[in-house]
């Protein structure tokens, strides 16, 4: 009878994240883990849900997706075990960056105080936190939340876009440019901080 695996590793299905997941998996090969695939945005939730299974749970995802989850769930026990720098020469900024995008032929300061904005709904809470700062400066926003590429929805429906910029190709095709960089992302390996870790002086204990 096959011995029950004591380690579960959740790896992202997302193509952009998969290369880094394969690199990170090398650290766990000797433990013969059970591998479960899931969407990167779901992995933080799954790590927490599976943490009561009695097994060691490790997740791998993008830092941007982790932060979005942590903003949704303020009391999350998820902690970063390891961060891998994202380096890609094909990426506009070398890595994924959540950006505020706008028309190439305009500047943000020339826009009206009431603005229509199209937001990738994967980043609803990150964008809310960012836009709150602009609202304190007198701006107000009519938000449109969409799945997938926001650049295609942008045309005629909104003044601005909040979405991840990678190569920048689709952004340029829509005649958009980066007005502001909201958050850079790297690849993270995550786990749940246990009771011993919370009480320890160095805080480096993990389930």
Describe the structure in brief.
Helices cover about 25% and strands about 30% of the residues. The chain is built from 7 helices and 10 strands.
Largest β sheet strand count, sense and barrel closure: 5 strands, mixed
Task: Give the CATH level 1 class of the largest domain.
Answer: Alpha Beta
Q: So how many helices?
A: 7
The percent range for helix content is 25-40%
Count of discrete domains: 2
SSE succession:
EHEHEHEEEHEHEHEEH
CATH architecture assignment name of the largest domain: 3-Layer(aba) Sandwich
Percent strand equals: 25-35%
CATH fold description of the largest domain: D-Maltodextrin-Binding Protein, domain 2
Backbone structural class: alpha/beta
Summed over residues and divided by their number, the pLDDT gives a mean of: 88
Q: Rough shape?
A: elongated
Oligomer: single chain
The total beta strand count reads: 10
Task: Tell me the span between the first and last alpha carbons.
Answer: 26 Å
Features:
single chain, 207 residues, alpha/beta, D-Maltodextrin-Binding Protein, domain 2, 2 domains, five-stranded mixed β-sheet, 7 helices, 10 strands
Give an overview of the whole structure:
This protein is of the alpha/beta class and 207 residues long. The protein has two domains: 7-86 and 186-199, D-Maltodextrin-Binding Protein, domain 2, CATH 3.40.190; 97-184, Periplasmic binding protein-like II (D-Maltodextrin-Binding Protein, domain 2), CATH 3.40.190.10. 27% of the residues lie in helices and 32% in strands. It is built from seven helices and ten strands. It has helices spanning 15-25, 43-50, 63-72, 124-135, 150-154, 169-173, 195-199; strands at 7-12, 34-38, 56-62, 78-84, 97-103, 114-120, 140-146, 160-165, 176-184, 187-192. Strand 6, helix 4 and strand 7 form a beta-alpha-beta unit. The longest helix is centred in the middle third of the chain and has 12 residues, at 124-135. The chain is elongated, with a radius of gyration of 19 Å. It starts with 6 loop residues before the first strand and ends in an 8-residue tail after the last helix.
């Amino acid at each position: 009878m096959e011995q029950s695996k004591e380690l579960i590793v959740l790896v992202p299905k997302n193509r952009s994240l998969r290369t880094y997941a394969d690199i990170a998996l090398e650290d766990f090969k000797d433990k013969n883990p059970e591998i479960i695939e899931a969407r990167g945005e779901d992995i933080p939730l799954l790590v927490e849900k599976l943490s009561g299974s009695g097994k060691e749970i490790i997740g791998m995802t993008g830092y941007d997706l982790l932060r979005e989850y942590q903003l949704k769930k303020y009391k999350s026990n998820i902690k970063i075990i390891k961060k891998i720098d994202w380096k890609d020469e094909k990426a506009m900024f070398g890595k994924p960056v959540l950006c505020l995008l706008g028309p190439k032929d305009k500047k943000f300061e020339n826009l009206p105080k009431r603005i229509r904005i199209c937001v990738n709904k994967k980043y609803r809470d990150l964008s809310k936190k960012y836009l709150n700062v602009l609202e304190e400066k007198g701006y107000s926003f009519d938000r449109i939340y969409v799945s997938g590429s926001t650049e295609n929805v942008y045309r005629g429906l909104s003044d601005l876009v909040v979405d991840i910029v990678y190569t920048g190709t689709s952004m340029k095709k829509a005649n958009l440019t980066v007005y502001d960089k909201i958050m850079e992302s790297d690849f993270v390996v995550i786990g749940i901080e246990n009771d011993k870790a919370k009480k320890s002086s160095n805080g480096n204990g993990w389930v």
